[in-house]
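Summary for the funding panel

The consortium committed to producing paired sequence-structure records for every protein in the target list. Below we show the first two records in order, beginning with the earlier of the two.
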Amino acid sequence: MKFLVAFDNSDGAKKALKFAMKFKGISDEYIICYISPLVMGAGPNFDAYVPPSLYKKSDETSDVVLNAAKELIEKENVNATFLKLDAPGEQIARAMANQAKERGVDIIITGTRKLSGFSKMLLGSVSSEVVKLSTVPVLVVPPE
């Protein structure tokens, strides 16, 4: 089986990754995926200069996040691929679902912060969107 684990170094993501390791006996591969939210995009109606330093900082953040994931599973002796992508904030869940489909993943494992009310409206819920958009099963690990 192939697992895609959403990881952003939050407490919920750490718990989800640790939970995913319970399946190491049946796992052929873990794809640990961090999707960096794009600060701004460009398109036909939007033109702006984005300094290269902003992209460099985003890339450095991605490396820090994925290195944290590597540290969490370093003693697990599993086949893991670490994937970093960029997507606009509202497209993170779609990018996750697309990666799962493209890579032949059997299940997506993600954490959640259990947002509600105004926080959920303002920040959205990536895990809820992944459940809606995915063509493969999604396991959502609740926070402590």
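The next record, for a separate protein in the list, is shown here:
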Amino acid sequence: MLLTVDIGNSQVSIVLFDGERRVDGWRLPTDARRTADEYGVLVRGLLDAAGHDSAEIDGAVISSVVPRLTNVFDVVARRISGSPPLVVRPGTTTGLPVRYEPPSSLGPDRVADAVGAVARFGAPVIVVDLGTATTFNVVNAAGTFVGGAIAPGVAVMAEALVRSGARLHEVDLVSGPGDRLLGRGTEEAIRLGVLHGHAGLVQGMVGRMERELQALHRGSNSSPASAQSAVPVVATGGWSRVIAPLVPRIDHVVPDLLVEGLRKIYELDRDPDPKRRAA
């Protein structure tokens, strides 16, 4: 079995795969102060509680945006799987050509999102990852990552608003935005503003990105009959189930798309056929 580990700014997502089948998954809080021993105990405890024998895990792949914890989970994965994990870094075989400057500045989480989306929905595709940050990742019809954007995430926006307003207080965003836009109290007004406001940001950004992508496609293809149809838009990340229903342009919601991308990257990296690895 394969252990996939996505180390984000807020949470560590751990998913266990048996081939292409998702077997189980857990989330832990991201804490750069924890040691490999501490996280090792937590991960083994989760595996044991779910009835999984760590001896059956023979591989691991890691994506991380928290450098301090990259090494920590490298140790954890080695101890559990008995072999060095694949850590997605610049130069890792991903099967995804990248047009980004410099290529090394593109986060492994964004790469894995794009790989997972292309594997499931083909290219072109736009991925909106709604996590601590909201990232927009765009792959063109040729299967090349051509760019995107990064915005503050839902919770970051809410926290900034509360910190900046002396008379404002924290609100429950998870309960959803409600059915109306005219808030009848401060808490409801904040909830509506943050959630529907973020949905409007996503809708607007996706629309403009799609038009830009189509313009690039027309510019690179001299045939007038090569009009490109609507680009599939995929939402993922911890806030996807809350925000996606508010965004008409989103076609698919796949909360664990990133770890699916990690699984594909691991398979490609381990592929003995050099032609397929270079594709």
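Regarding this second record: Confidence is low (pLDDT under 50) at residues 222-227. The chain has two domains: 2-87, 103-265.
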